[in-house]
Design brief:
- It is a single chain.
- The protein has 352 residues and is of the alpha+beta class.
- The chain is built from 15 helices and 8 strands.
- It folds into 3 domains: 160 residues, no CATH class; 60 residues, no CATH class; 104 residues, no CATH class.
- Helices cover 41% and strands 18% of the residues.
- The protein has an 8-stranded mixed sheet, sandwiched between helices.
Length: 352
Amino acid sequence: MFCRNVFSDLCINFNSFVDYKYVNSDVAFKRSGKFSLSSAIKYPLCTMHKTKSLDANRFLRKELGGDTVNITKQGISDRMQYIDPRVYIDMNDTAIKQLYDNTDEMASFKDFVVCAVDASIIEIPNVPLTREEFEIPENTKLESYKIICKNILHGWYSMVDTQKDFVLSSNISYKDISELEHALFHLKEVSNELDLTKTITVYDRGYNATEIMLLTTLLDSYFVIRAKKSTFKKQQEKMKINDETFKISLNNSKINRFHNNELKEYARILKSMKIRIVKVKLNNGTTETLITNIPEEIAQSSELKELYGDRWTVEKDFDRLKNKLQIEKFTGRKKIRVEQDFVRQDRVSILL
């Protein structure tokens, strides 16, 4: 019931987001017209995946109460190119903050919110304009497949609540940025919406870096990471029982790989950190190793296994957004139009 009220409030207070700070032009929407700023911001939230002109005219006729209202495909594109995608992120963040301020409603594990971070691939239009605006180099291997490849593969990174199934943070990027850097980005972005001291973030093996473990601990937050066999290999080999805590040395070879300069200095002062290594048996009989900073009094090894299993939520979200909401059917080729569609589908539409 509380969630429903928050979503209703978001719709009722829609006009608070009709603000010229979300317009990337000094002159756009200054004169009255049938496709106003309010209509431009609202329109992507009401799209039915029809052709742009049919969809927009259906929307406008309902908005203005007339059967003869007409706008061309070019007219839509001309107006939408001025809308900053940030408006949809702010809608999402406003609702999310209100939701998580009520911790009794949102906690999913012993008063903790459990989140998952992962990456997938998204396809964007493979045309010169899109390539240029996303700064995709001409010598990329994908260029040789231009004739047979309709789209460009793009990195899609997301952080979701595993129980409530809300997207808390997401972004797309072609640039050569590691999954770790995106994970650090998500932690910082959600810090204004979530109480990180009551948050557990779950990661797969691609995120088993000392840097993210140390940063999460520094934020007084918690993590569960599926380890590779090479992760803290010496400590794993020393284990006498399936649940042990070790002091990990923060030497220069580890610190020099950090991306965050402030964290580097903190690590040099700290010199070591404690991590807990837990081996759990899966239903198929295989044994997985989990690394965490959650003390045993908060989560037993069997509970850590369940927390890691909840990470599958983010995989289901990727599938739903691609195959049901068809997020890759972008309505424009400009970077700003691609980002509008991405943010609207990935974050706001799921809330609504």
